[in-house]
Specification:
By secondary structure, the chain is mostly helical. The chain contains 6 helices and no strands. The model has no long low-confidence stretch (mean pLDDT 85).
Length: 252
């Protein structure tokens, strides 16, 4: 009897394991099925989104095409003529403004650059006037004049730019010379280096022409730099003599 009871319990246990395995298998199949459905839904949503974007683009293109106005050749020619008349008028105004800007030289570099910008804009407007307009011939004549004006302006601008550059470089050398000799005493080599920088700064100032805008500032700096050059030269000579005396004493 005990043996039969054990056999029955074992059979029931095996049946339970098979049932549990079956349940797990069914759950896994349901989970896979749900994942497939979810994935399909995501693809459907993505496709719908793409279609909506494409439809939006098509609608926008249709709306834009409705706004395009077809212009006849006669109307196009009239529009070009009107624009050409406006452009040549503006070009003349800019040229006059450019000349007014540099009317009373000498002038700072920034003023010459402003005049250059105005004249370049004037030339650009004339160059864009199309053939077939009634003002094209006048525009071509003005272009010759304005281009020559531009060449003259560029020469003066380059002249002022060179003078300004020399003044700026001279100031930098003066600062360097001043920094070198801070906190003396120094050996002769240091004073010689400062002396050289002061001499270079002075030479640059002396190269600035009288009709340059920065000439008067250069004159003021020149007086100061020459004083500093003499001071450094004196210190250099003093230091050299001092070292010579020290050497002589040591030799004796």
């Amino acid at each position: 009897m005990k043996t039969d009871k054990l056999l029955n319990e074992l059979e029931n246990s095996l049946d339970s394991e098979e049932l549990l395995h079956q349940i797990k298998t069914e759950q896994q199949e349901e989970q896979v099925s749900e994942e497939k459905v979810f994935s399909q839904k995501r693809w459907i949503i993505l496709l719908i989104s793409i279609l909506m974007v494409e439809v939006g683009i098509v609608i926008y293109a249709l709306q834009a095409s409705q706004k395009i106005v077809l212009v006849s050749p006669e109307e196009q020619a009239l529009l070009e003529q009107q624009q050409a008349e406006k452009d040549i008028k503006e070009a003349k105004r800019l040229s006059v403004e450019s000349k007014r800007t540099i009317k009373y030289p000498p002038l700072p570099l920034a003023t010459w650059e402003e005049a250059e910008t105005e004249l370049l804009e004037s030339i650009k407007l004339l160059e864009e006037i199309p053939k077939g307009t009634t003002v094209k011939k006048e525009a071509d004549k003005l272009l010759q004049t304005y281009r020559q004006d531009y060449q003259n302006l560029r020469q003066q601008l380059t002249f002022e730019k060179t003078a300004t550059s020399k003044l700026v470089t001279s100031k930098k050398l003066a600062i360097q010379a001043s920094v070198i000799v801070q906190n003396p005493p120094h050996p002769p080599e240091v004073w010689e280096k400062a002396q050289t920088k002061w001499q270079e700064a002075i030479s640059l100032l002396q190269e600035i022409p009288q009709d340059a805008f920065v000439f008067y500032e250069a004159v003021e700096k020149l007086d100061l730099y020459q004083v500093n050059y003499q001071a450094v030269t004196t210190r250099l000579e003093t230091q050299i003599n001092r070292e010579l005396r020290t050497e002589n004493r040591g030799g004796n």
